Each structure stands twice: as structure tokens, then as C-alpha cells.
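Batch job 17 of 40 flagged for manual review because the log was empty.
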Amino acid sequence: MHIGPLDLGNRPLFLAPMEDVTDPSFRHICKQYGADMMYTEFISSDGLIRDARKSLKKLEILDEERPIGIQLYGHLMEPMIEAARMAEAARPEVIDLNFGCPVRKIATRGAGAGMLCNVPLMVSMTEAIVKAVRVPVTVKTRLGWDDSSKNIVDIAERLQDAGIQALTIHGRTRAQLYRGNADWTLIGAVKNNPRMHIPIIGNGDIDSAETALHHFNTYGVDGIMIGRACFGRPWIFQEIKHYLRTGVPAPDLSIREKATLALQHLEKSIEHKGLPRGIYEMRRHLTHYFKGLPHFKSIRMILVTSSEPEELRETIERIAEIYGGEK
């Protein structure tokens, strides 16, 4: 699969952009475990052009993360164009336009999935950004606004005509948010539309290696994007690749291996964000690494309340000692 000059190989796996999740420390871990391409957390175009510190921080890219895309969202033409030029200066491989975020405060302003209510603006904005930058421009969107407007087949054709070089489709409408099951039939309809020639990446409910293989084979997508399923389980990329290659499930990570990974993730978070923020924003990951362990409540409380790096390190090492014989 190619996005412009970028060769991602056969059946690549993408890490979905997720706010407050896909920061550099988490991207480092996902890359280590086989993600072929990753994206920054989505970035507000308004925030960028106002020099908002948090938005500018998200533009930071490490060479070890490449290839990587910077994802932008906004509802106004000129700020989006200016933000795209600023993002290009950070030298990503791709600029991705977010026309799929369903969060109320974003969508009701006309940004993210709100663009599905104004397809002419979506298309004209995309075309203007394609012309404004030299790097490949891609789009991530949904099937439509609601069940009565699942117009993704038409939207896909129009975005392709506007010049995008790949399209990611989440198999839900904006009205669904993340409820119900993702409908991949329309993703398949876009992929199998004879007018389409750009790569199509499917997204939604990919939670196992078996599901990934089924969706590759059934719907013919060029790549698969993984979102919520990698939260606390970044090794899912490795599991899927192993299964695609061999047809048998990958061995489970041991608790000791998960503890080692959690420690590495913690150190990366502190290195990138400093103290205490590196710990605060890491807490959501720490408990997920050890989800399902028996008699874990007291240890979990330390993981979610401690602000001391050494106490967290000792607690994670104690988890490995106590549960080291369990998967």
C-alpha cells in the first residue's frame, strides 16, 4: 500500500489518533510492537494559529516514530489552510484531516464529524489544503451524520477528486458515537467502487487478530486502523501481524513482560512531559496493562494515586513478582 511516495507494505496497521492517548510515549510503545504508521493526537487549527502551547507541543515528532501523520481539525477554511502549512513545517509524512470526531463540542461547531453536514465545505477545504501543501493529504471520516445520511460512497469519490491520497473510514455514523457495531459493509462498498483508486483504510471494532484477518479478507481494505483496542494493549499490532503471517495466535505476553513494558512506558512519559505531568497522564495506561488481575484493588490504588516515580517503579516490579507466574 502506498500513500503518495510512502510505501507501507502489504496490509499495514495504523495507530488511530486519540486525544490524550497517542502521545509520544504511547506512540513509542506502539511502534515497538509493530504499528506501521501512527498519527499525532488531533490538533485544533485554531489552537495552532493562536500559538496555543498544547497544540504546538503536539507538532513535535521524533525520527523513531516515522512514518507519521499530523491530524488537524477545524471548521473554518483559512485557519485550516494556515494550520496545514504549519504542520507541514514539522515534516510529517502525511497531513490528515479529521472529518470524523463525534465529540459534541467539536461536531456541533461544524468541525470533525460536523463536516458531514456540510459536504461542499468539506470538499472545498480539502482541495484548498491539498493545493497549499506538498506532503500527501489524507482524510479520516465516518459513514455519515446519521442513519438517514450514510453518504460515504459519494463523499469518498468527491474527496478523491479533491486530491487526497488515502481515506480512512470509521464504520459508524456521528449519531452512533461509539455505540453499537461498526458497519463495514459500506467501507467495503467504497473500496470496491470501481471509481476509487486511492487506498482505503478501515476502522472500527478491530479488537483481535482474527477480526483483523476477517475484515481484510471480507472487505478488501488496503489497511486497518486500530483505536480503542490498543489502549492498555499496544502489543495488539504484534498479535495481528503474527496471525496474518502464520495463521495461529501469538503467545500471550506474560505479566513480567507487561510489567517491563509498563516501566518503559512510564519512563518515556516522564522523559517527554516531565514531573508530575508525565505521571498524571500515564495513570490511565498503567491500570490497563494489568486489567483483570485478581485481588488487585489495593495495588491499583497506588497506580492511580501515586505521584512518586520510585513508588510507581517499585509497585510495578512488585506486580511482576506477585503475578509473575500468571498470564
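Reviewer: the log was empty due to a logging misconfiguration, but the result itself is present. Residues 2-246 form a domain with the TIM Barrel fold (CATH 3.20.20.70). Unflagging and moving on to job 18.
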